[in-house]
Write a structure and sequence with these properties.
This protein has 327 residues and is mainly β. The chain has helices spanning 15-20, 24-42, 160-164, 169-178, 298-301; strands spanning 4-10, 46-57, 68-79, 84-95, 104-114, 119-122, 133-137, 180-188, 191-197, 213-220, 226-235, 241-254, 257-268, 275-287, 310-313, 320-324. A 16-stranded mixed sheet has the order 8-9-1-10-11-12-13-14-2-3-4-5-6-7-15-16. The longest helix is centred in the first third of the chain and has 19 residues, at 24-42. It starts with a strand and ends with a strand.
């Protein structure tokens, strides 16, 4: 049976009392856990993978927002040290046809690349099969959160907002370290539960949060602290903990590095009859090996673009027309 570390983050009124009761030994234990997690994630420096799976949005608010479900495909190549990224993604979505009109189910498509010198963003007009624009931009320009690249280093531990926004590993580690330690409990051999509470408000007179949340993360100590589950729960009016976001990840070892093999997400929107889910399976082509630079070029992306797509260079003023894709 795998050894698991359970990290629990609580928002509660007794935060100060819990923090005061934490011994130096427990603080050192928590710091050791966090350091091991960060170190093992940094061992993944580069790679190429494909992911396939399923996305479902169970919206049932009204007739304008129909439920939908469909396949997800991802192709990605990355090199963190060289600051290079290629990310292609298709998934189902909804197209807004205007006020009071039902949304239409579509397939969203993103082709994205980034290097230290530029970024490339092609969204095919948000609809697969429709010609759009392929934009060459400054390197710090990022795509919208709906189809942003996924940082595989933080799967299984980071809250979904950081995963969705392609947050760096440092952001996840900083969030864990920034919160106040409430407790570290050795449940049994190999299983440790760590409780954290949020930082105090900058304004001492500021009221405490009106609602209580709990964030739980499990780590597998036999896989170099690879995170296997993360839960964000909110206490309802009856005092019961209700899951808002639950993600899981499984890991496999390649080139002595742990990489994700599966990832699932179940996200329940607060106050809505809506459940969004992802279910992905990863197939790795390479780990910690050189990534071909041509993948990060317009020429590397162009074969995936629809006929008629206009390639524009927005780094110049005015915007320069590079060419139109012709098949």
């Amino acid at each position: 049976m795998n050894s698991i570390l359970s990290v629990t983050i609580l928002l509660c009124g007794a935060a100060d009392a819990e923090e005061a009761a934490v011994s130096r030994e427990k603080r050192e234990r928590f710091e050791s856990i966090l350091n091991s997690y960060e170190l093992s994630r940094r061992q993944l420096q580069s790679g190429i993978y494909r992911a396939v799976g399923d996305k479902r949005d169970g919206t049932a608010q009204n007739e304008r927002f129909p439920a939908y479900r469909g396949p997800v495909t991802i192709y990605s190549a990355f090199d963190y040290e060289a600051r290079m990224l290629r990310f292609d993604r298709t998934e189902p979505g909804l197209w807004d046809n205007g006020p009071d009109k039902p949304l239409t189910g579509i397939t969203l498509q993103l082709n994205f690349a980034r290097t230290p010198k530029y970024s490339i963003y092609a969204s095919a007009g948000w609809i697969k099969g429709v010609s759009g624009e392929c934009l060459i931009r400054q390197p710090d320009v990022r795509p919208s959160a709906e189809l942003a690249p996924i940082n595989v280093r933080i799967l299984g531990a980071a809250p979904w907002d950081l995963v969705r926004e392609a947050g760096p590993l440092e952001a996840t580690v900083d969030r864990l370290r920034h919160w106040r330690l409430a407790d570290v409990t050795e449940r049994q051999e190999g299983i440790v539960q760590v409780s954290l509470v949020p930082p105090k408000p900058a304004d001492p007179a500021a009221p405490p949060p009106a609602e209580e949340f709990r964030w739980e993360v499990w780590f597998n100590t036999r896989q170099d602290c690879s995170p296997t589950r993360s839960e964000l729960l909110m206490r309802d009016a009856a005092g019961r903990w209700q899951p808002q976001s639950v993600s899981t990840a499984s890991w496999t070892q390649m080139e002595k590095v742990w990489v994700p093999e599966t990832f699932t997400l179940h996200e329940q929107y607060t106050g809505q009859e809506r459940l969004q889910t992802y279910d992905l399976r990863f197939a790795w082509e390479s780990v910690n090996r050189p990534v071909p630079a041509e993948l990060m070029t317009v020429e590397g992306i162009e074969p995936l673009l629809e006929d008629g797509t206009m390639i524009l260079d927005e780094r110049s003023r005015p915007t320069r027309v590079v060419r139109r894709v012709r098949r």
